[in-house]
Amino acid sequence: MRYCRKVLSTIWLLVLTVSACDAQPKVTITTQDGRQVGFAVEVADTPGKREMGLMYRTELGDDRGMIFVFPSESQQSFWMKNTPRSLDMIFISKERKIVGIVEQATPFSLDPRFVPGQSQFVFEINGGLSKRHGFKAGDAVQFDGFSATVSQ
Description:
The longest helix is centred in the first third of the chain and has 21 residues, at about 1-20. The chain has one domain: Jelly Rolls. The chain has helices spanning about 1-20, 45-50, 130-135; strands at about 25-30, 35-45, 65-75, 85-90, 100-105, 120-125, 140-145. The protein is α+β, with helices and mostly antiparallel strands. It has a seven-stranded mixed β-sheet. Residues about 5-20 have low confidence and may be disordered. It contains three helices and seven strands, in the order H-E-E-H-E-E-E-E-H-E.
C-alpha cells in the first residue's frame, strides 16, 4: 500500500510538472504572409516588473522575450538603462496589432525609444530578430498562457 501511494504521488507530481510546462506564457506573431513565430515570455504586468524589465540580463534565447502589459493604450516610451543586450522593442495595440518596432536599441542608452501611435503592450526580444523574421507594423499578435490585464 505504501508503495502504491509513493507511485501515485510521483505520477501526480509529473502531471503537475507537465501542466506547468504547458502553461508557459507565449507570444506568437503572425506576419502578413501568414508565417507564425512563437516566443516563450516573461510577463511584466506590475509597476515593479515593468521598471526592472530586462535590465542586467546578459543572456536571452532567440525564442524568448518579455511582454510588458500596461493598464491602457498610451504613448509608451522605453530606454535601455542597465540593459547590456541590444533589443528590438515591438509596440502592440490593444487590438493585438504591431504599431511599430524600434530595432536594435543601443545597450545602456538613456535615450527614450518609442514609435508614433499608442500601444498597450511592448514586446522585447533580441536585437535583429524582428528584421530576421520580417515583422512589420500591422502584423497580428496572439497571447497565450497569461492575462492581458495588469496585476495589482
